[in-house]
Design a protein that fits this description.
- This protein is α/β, with parallel strands linked by helices.
- Helix content is 29%, strand content 25%.
- Strands 3, 4, 5, 8, 9, 16 and 17 form a seven-stranded mixed beta sheet that branches. It has a six-stranded parallel beta sheet with strand order 12-11-10-13-14-15, sandwiched between helices. Strands 1-2 form a two-stranded antiparallel sheet.
- The structure holds zinc ion.
- Zinc ion (ZN) binds next to helix 5.
Amino acid sequence: MRALVKARADVGLDFDPARPVPSRGQPGPREVLIRVLKAGVCGTDRHIWEWDDWARSRIPVGIVTGHEFVGVVERVGDDVTTVRPGQRVSAEGHIAPADDYNTRTGNAHIARGMQIIGVDRDGCFADYIMMPEGNIWPVDERIDDVIAAVMDPLGNAVHTVMAAGVSAKNVLITGVGAIGLMAVAVARAAGAARIFTADINPAHGQLALDLGADEFYDVRGGDEWVRDLRAATRGDGADALLEMSGAPDAINAGLDALRNGGTAALLGLPSRPFPFDFNSRVIFKGATVLGVNGRRMFETWYQMEALLLSGRLDLGGIITHRIPMANYARAFELMQAGEAIKIVLDIND
Ligand code: ZN
């Protein structure tokens, strides 16, 4: 099969035209072989492409990359009962060990020993991927392939919005890249009162406004915007912060803009540790700070499907490019140039 492989401990990915199909196409008793139709390109894939410190420390050289996809079931193992060949599916890409404390208590998304497809084991930038049956998500026929291909990052956005709770609240979203923009649409659909957004990219800010944000602050000019946000909220600040950027300046300013007693849900990953003032930004503020990791399995998936089928979730404009897998290098060029928000690779179409 064709596959994009991290074949060398260096920048880039290699196109392998003759990678063996996983397990030679024979699923184990509770495994499912999926023919991949489309796959989303993620910031994580960019880290793997760029071979930065994180990628060097985590990625086994030789794996097939990619973790966001939609496909069609090709073959199932003998003991599989919940899916059948021909069914259109996506899948939760976090594979949790069954015996972990958190797996057994309803929090599999933070199980120790978690394996992520395209990060710890073979992923979906390939003609075929093998998944455990328990990770499969059958896709409703009303959901388009392009949207089904990005249910993984959409799930990050839904998980963050639901963790913070946004209904009837003034919400601040710092960082409106692909997931931050999805969070704007989700927060709007989930009944946020007002949505404030902040980013360094005015084009993304315009899209945030198009998707239902009430305000966009271009933060390149410094932190004055925090005062503007307070002025717009009776001096109090935002009820909820959804931090999507991982930028220290955004984390600091976002928490400054949070009202006392507010809730901050943090999804963005800082690229390195940084000094942080707990006193003013968390402790005296009485803030609730939530780390958000992955998607709740499978609560987030049910929420996503419900939102998508409600017709209230408009993701228009977030998927800016569709590119054939063979032209994958172009996808990474566009991301590095800041010209793409979300790119979907056509694998088998
Ligand atoms: Zn991703």
